[in-house]
């Protein structure tokens, strides 16, 4: 039986205990039918189910068995799709008779009708063309059509789907379904009555929209005309649906109409263009036109293009006037027609000029809001026209470039995309003729420079003639260097640096010109090659550009030359000729590249390696091997005089500025040539690499030796280098790795581990002793400080485990130094034996090795726990748990990591019985703060509580730690309350998950940058300080804040949108009046009021006595408030008295603020009067004679001195008092020696004291107390 049917029947059987009656009846009927099949000794196949159900349905015919009939028909709808077509054709008449009765019987039962429709669909689809001529088939199809307009949505939808499936699958060999004419007549009848019965017409249009079929040619035009007539009823939704239905019809219109009929139909559709403000209808109309013209182009491209310019001119205003969705639909329509409706023969015709004229009008100011879309269309036209865009689009290109050069132009990115498309289409030569760079200062008069085009050209020059660079761009580069030297001689260093930068930008264009040029054989001459080699040798700044260009040229040509079907700008023969031409220059270039490689620092050799590799790929193998022999000779000579570099010469700063020793360089060059070596040279280099890896004097050479061996082993299977490595594993490689284990340097461990991992992947059965021999080194590598080395160690651990799981025999005698192969020394290889080898590290004497072993066990168990037996897992767990209580923190930390792993991966049946051992062990560190051990313990307990339940875990917690359980229970309750509050408050599903999911689930559910093991071990380390409930509460608070902020932002945006109405503003220009006839006048326009934009106040310092003084914002604000209040008082007084004397009102207000008898309002809005002090009365001043000014002044001075004030009556140090802080500030004056003047009379016994702080006064105050 089909697996899909079996799955469906299995689900039905499980519904026997369902609470829904109809589901119980379905399951009971199925079980009864299956029991009948067993009694009849019939196989449980779809045909058997079908026969039994059909017989039972015939027996239940009649109104008295409605419920059982419903269940039988439902089961038939499930079984029928799996019954063969031959059986369904044979039982067609019987099925139609029975289902037709059910169709009439259950006209009001939605579930029954849906099942009947499903059965009818399956039966009718399997019938041939002859069966469709029978009246019963046609009548049944008409019933389905009637149901497709039923008022019940579920029935209507299912019937429409059935009709669509039937019409889209005509019986072979017919292309049009025999019932298509019936469907068309039904649709036409329903649409003819659309004005009276709009709802049925809408349902019919939905059916037409859903149906994907080839309509009858003789009725297709009539159907389209009926659809177009609906737009005249002025019913928006009906009009929109009619356009969408027309869109569906046009997808298959090419098979239904000839060219003339299709053209007439398109003209009629174009005449129905809706108002641009009706976005729904406009978008549907645009899609109809788009699909229609694309289909028309497939019928006759020439005829389609004749009306294309006028159509684009008709659609183009929608980009300006429509809504955003309409603008995008219009752009998509024009873009598709430019791409598919312009034939190659018409690329230079008059119609193209008309299209360019239309697009050029889009650069006017009225299209400014849609310039992004306009630029997209212009770029598409450049891409379609190619070289024919010159000179058709020259004026348009120049205008866009001029717009791009305006400083306030806002669409520079889009303009750059258009100019880039122009460069790719017409080439750099024609482009620079239109827009010259004008970089020659001497010859440039009033012409503007366009140096900004150089970076643009670098990104878009492709398949351009290389000769243009040689003849035009190289002289330009030389001229720029000459101008730079002239400026340098004149002492104008800035201009000199600018022209040097332009010089490098010109050379950077070489990479684009080398991207498959068509004239390689002609342009790449010996003189040009010599120039490249010379520049590469002399100018380090040009090396990356030249090497990138050569690498691009070689790789592109080689790819085309060795491609079976060359579809690029060059044919395969041309590519082969170009490759042979470049190969002639390869030896000389390799010589120069080797010299440059030796002179370059090690950090900047990557591009040189790529270029050397590209040249090695185009020369013969004999030449490569000859070059390799020369390199090996130089390597031998360099090693004779080589001295290990000092520690200072290995620093990163030193290596970035100085080339490495000559011996290191020769090893790197020899390693580059490994893929092209024959057997003899590969053997020579293999021996040299072994010797380099074994020496311990120079750690860098040792590291390069391991890298070379890895590169040899990475070669494809069957290559000479790979064969040598495979043949030397037993005799040379494994002994070398074992012997050199003690002398390997720290910097070489990563490469050595990579070599071990690579060798472990392809070990033969007689080489499995390699794994236990080097496994200890891999285990120690798990504790490496270098992250990459540590990851390689873990990967190697897994590679070894997978190889051991494949099986084989380990010859333990070889490990003991005995080459004999006694049967007693053979150990069977499997995953359990692999774990036994790993656990041997637990007997080590050092904590470092023990902790590394535990980490290795954790990683291997996480990967292979499903392949281990439960007994062995329990035994392993009991062993590792002994180390959890170890007093060494390094061992304990690794052991806690192991407990983390088992708390996630092991089944509950294994974990729960051992909680009495796990929980007390980890609680030993619950009071240890160092290394976050306390938090780790709590987190492990939370994991166990989530998996096994808090009450289960609490049973294993000792009495002295029960407070922790109480705390965990409270935290869970808080998390539950927070989650419920978040759910009622509208929190998102992600917020709920963040509180529910633990570390184990977070390894699967949350996005992680590491693997699953790292998520388990380290993924929750950053969450240790906050448990899940706290994280949920914080997340809920954060979401509330984010929601408030978003609401405020929405309010602000709404206010801003409401405030800014339609209109335009002109930016004032100091150069003179604005010329509105200038095409660049748009750069002075703005769509929003510049004055309405809030500008941040900038505090401008003021000059006083040669110093800068910043005004106090609080003081200025206070003055402004005082002035505003004074104006209000003055206005009020003027209104009451009829006299607008502002000075008088201002005097009254200031008097209330500054007078000793004035008042002020406290923060609580209560009125408080100014405090008065003794001798601070205004009456004393008023009592003085007006004429005796000198006496009054003297009295004021004496009184002020007594009260600690200056002559102006202001307390000393008042100007240095801060308003906000408790300290002092300085406002525009110099630093004083003291904020309060010192009184010489208070100086006694050589001590200086501030008045009031002398010893005498202190004693007096203390006596008073």
From TrEMBL:
Biased composition (Low complexity): 1122-1132
Location in or out of the cell: Nucleus
Alphabetical list of SUPFAM superfamilies matching this protein: ARM repeat
UniProt keyword terms in alphabetical order: Nucleus
Stretches assigned to the RRP12 HEAT domain: 324-599
Biased composition (Polar residues): 1190-1199
Any single Pfam family the record assigns to this protein: HEAT_RRP12_N
UniProt keyword RNA-binding present: no
Name of the protein: Pre-rRNA processing protein
Species of the source: Coemansia spiralis
Gene name, Swiss-Prot/TrEMBL: RRP12
């Amino acid at each position: 039986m089909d697996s899909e049917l079996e799955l469906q029947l299995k689900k039905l059987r499980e519904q026997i205990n369902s609470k829904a009656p109809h589901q119980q009846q379905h399951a009971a009927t199925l079980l009864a039918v299956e029991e009948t099949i067993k009694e009849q000794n019939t196989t449980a196949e779809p045909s058997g189910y079908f026969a039994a159900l059909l017989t039972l349905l015939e027996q239940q015919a009649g109104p008295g068995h409605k419920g059982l009939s419903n269940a039988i028909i439902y089961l038939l709808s499930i079984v029928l799709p799996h019954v063969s077509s031959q059986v369904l054709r044979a039982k067609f008449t019987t099925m139609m008779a029975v289902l037709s009765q059910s169709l009439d019987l259950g006209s009001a039962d939605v579930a029954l009708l849906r099942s009947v429709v499903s059965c009818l669909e399956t039966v009718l689809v399997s019938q041939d063309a002859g069966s469709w001529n029978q009246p019963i088939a046609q009548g049944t199809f008409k019933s389905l059509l009637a149901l497709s307009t039923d008022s019940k949505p579920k029935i209507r939808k299912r019937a429409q789907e059935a009709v669509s499936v039937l019409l889209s699958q005509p019986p072979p060999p017919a292309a049009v379904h025999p019932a298509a004419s019936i469907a068309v007549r039904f649709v036409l009848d329903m649409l003819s009555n659309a004005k009276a019965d709009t709802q049925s017409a809408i349902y019919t249009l939905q059916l037409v929209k859903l149906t994907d079929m080839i309509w009858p040619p003789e009725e297709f035009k009539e159907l389209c005309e009926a659809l177009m007539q609906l737009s005249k009823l002025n019913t928006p939704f009906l009009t929109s649906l009619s356009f969408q239905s027309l869109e569906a019809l046009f997808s298959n219109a090419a098979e239904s109409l000839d060219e003339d009929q299709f053209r007439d139909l398109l003209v009629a559709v174009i005449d129905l263009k809706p108002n641009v403000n009706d976005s729904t209808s406009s978008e549907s109309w645009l899609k109809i036109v788009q699909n229609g013209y694309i289909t028309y182009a497939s019928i006759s491209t020439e005829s389609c293009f004749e009306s294309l310019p006028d159509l684009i001119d008709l659609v183009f205003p929608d980009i300006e006037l429509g809504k955003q969705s309409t603008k995008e639909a219009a752009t998509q329509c024009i873009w598709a027609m430019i791409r598919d409706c312009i034939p190659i023969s018409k690329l230079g015709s008059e119609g193209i000029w008309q299209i360019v004229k239309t697009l050029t009008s889009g650069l006017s100011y009225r299209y400014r809001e849609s310039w992004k879309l306009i630029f997209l269309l212009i770029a598409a036209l450049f891409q379609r026209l190619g070289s024919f865009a010159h000179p058709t689009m020259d004026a348009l290109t120049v205008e866009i470039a001029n717009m791009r050069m305006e400083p306030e132009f806002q669409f520079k990115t889009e303009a750059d995309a258009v100019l880039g498309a122009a460069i790719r289409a017409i080439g750099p030569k024609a482009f620079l003729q239109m827009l010259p760079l004008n970089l020659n200062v001497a010859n440039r008069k009033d012409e503007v420079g366009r140096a900004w085009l150089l970076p643009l050209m670098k990104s878009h020059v492709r398949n351009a003639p290389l000769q243009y660079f040689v003849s035009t761009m190289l002289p330009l580069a030389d001229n720029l260097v000459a101008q730079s030297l002239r400026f340098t001689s004149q002492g104008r260093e800035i201009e000199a640096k600018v022209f040097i930068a332009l010089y490098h930008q010109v050379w950077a264009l070489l990479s684009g010109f080398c991207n498959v040029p068509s004239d390689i054989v002609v342009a790449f001459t010996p003189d040009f090659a010599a120039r490249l080699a010379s520049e590469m040798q002399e100018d380090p700044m040009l090396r990356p550009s030249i090497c990138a260009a050569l690498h691009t040229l070689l790789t592109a040509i080689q790819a085309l030359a060795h491609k079976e079907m060359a579809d690029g700008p060059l044919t395969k023969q041309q590519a082969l000729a170009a490759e042979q031409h470049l190969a002639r220059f390869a030896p000389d270039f390799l010589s120069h590249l080797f010299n440059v490689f030796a002179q370059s620092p090690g950090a900047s050799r990557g591009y040189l390696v790529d270029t050397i590799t590209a040249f090695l790929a185009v020369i013969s193998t004999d030449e490569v091997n000859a070059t390799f022999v020369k390199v090996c000779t130089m390597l031998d000579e360099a090693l004779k005089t080589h001295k290990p570099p000092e520690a200072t010469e290995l620093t990163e700063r030193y290596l970035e500025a100085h080339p490495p020793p000559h011996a290191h360089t020769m090893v790197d060059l020899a390693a580059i040539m490994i893929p092209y070596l024959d057997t003899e040279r590969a053997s020579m280099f293999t021996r040299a690499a072994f010797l380099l890896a074994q020496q311990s004097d120079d750690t860098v050479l040792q590291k390069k030796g391991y890298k070379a061996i890895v590169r040899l082993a990475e070669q494809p299977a069957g290559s000479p280098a790979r064969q040598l490595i495979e043949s030397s594993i037993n005799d040379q490689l494994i002994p070398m790795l074992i012997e050199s284990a003690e002398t390997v340097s720290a910097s070489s461990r990563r490469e050595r581990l990579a070599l071990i991992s690579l060798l472990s992947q392809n070990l033969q059965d007689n080489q499995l002793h390699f794994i236990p021999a080097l496994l200890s080194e891999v285990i120690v590598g798990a504790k490496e400080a270098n992250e990459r080395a540590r990851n390689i160690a873990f990967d190697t651990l897994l590679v070894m485990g997978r190889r051991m799981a494949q099986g084989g025999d380990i010859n333990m005698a070889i490990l003991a130094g005995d080459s004999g192969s006694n049967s007693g020394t053979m150990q069977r290889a499997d995953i359990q034996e692999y774990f036994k080898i790993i656990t041997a590290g637990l007997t080590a004497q050092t904590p470092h090795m023990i902790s590394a072993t535990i980490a290795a066990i954790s990683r291997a168990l996480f990967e292979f726990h499903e392949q281990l037996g439960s007994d062995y897992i329990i035994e392993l767990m009991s062993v590792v748990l002994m180390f959890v209580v170890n007093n060494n923190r390094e061992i304990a930390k690794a052991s806690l990591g192991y407990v983390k792993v088992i708390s996630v991966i092991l089944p509950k049946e294994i974990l729960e019985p051992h909680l009495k051992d796990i929980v007390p062990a980890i609680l030993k560190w619950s009071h240890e703060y160092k290394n976050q051990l306390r938090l780790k313990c709590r987190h492990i307990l939370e994991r166990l509580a989530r998996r096994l339940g808090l009450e289960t875990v609490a049973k294993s917690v000792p009495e002295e730690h029960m407070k922790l359980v109480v705390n965990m229970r409270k935290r869970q309750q808080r998390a539950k309350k927070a989650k419920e509050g978040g759910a009622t408050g509208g929190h998102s599903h992600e917020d709920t998950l963040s509180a529910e999911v633990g570390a184990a689930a977070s390894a699967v559910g949350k996005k992680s940058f590491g693997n699953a093991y790292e998520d388990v071990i380290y993924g929750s380390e950053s969450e240790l300080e906050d448990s899940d409930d706290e994280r949920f509460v914080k997340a809920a608070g954060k979401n509330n804040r984010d929601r408030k902020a978003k609401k405020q932002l929405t309010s602000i945006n709404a206010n801003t949108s409401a405030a800014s109405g339609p209109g335009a503003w002109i930016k004032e220009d100091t150069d003179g009046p604005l010329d509105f006839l200038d095409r660049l006048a748009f750069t002075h326009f703005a769509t929003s009021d510049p004055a309405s934009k809030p500008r941040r106040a900038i505090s401008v310092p003021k000059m006083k006595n040669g110093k800068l003084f910043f005004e106090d914002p609080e003081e200025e604000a206070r003055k402004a408030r005082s002035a505003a209040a004074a104006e209000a008082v003055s206005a009020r007084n003027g209104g009451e008295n009829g006299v607008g004397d502002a000075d008088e009102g201002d005097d009254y207000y200031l008097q209330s603020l500054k007078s000793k008898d004035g008042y002020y309002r406290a923060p609580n809005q209560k009125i408080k009067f100014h405090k008065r002090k003794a001798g601070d009365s205004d009456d004393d001043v008023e009592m003085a004679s007006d004429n005796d000014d000198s006496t009054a002044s003297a009295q004021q001075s004496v009184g002020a001195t007594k009260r600690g004030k200056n002559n102006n009556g202001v307390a000393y140090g008042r100007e240095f008092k801060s308003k906000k802080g408790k300290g002092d500030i300085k406002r525009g004056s110099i630093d004083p020696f003291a904020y309060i003047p010192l009184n010489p009379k208070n100086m006694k016994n050589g001590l200086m004291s501030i008045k009031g702080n002398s010893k005498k006064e202190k004693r007096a105050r203390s006596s008073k107390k």
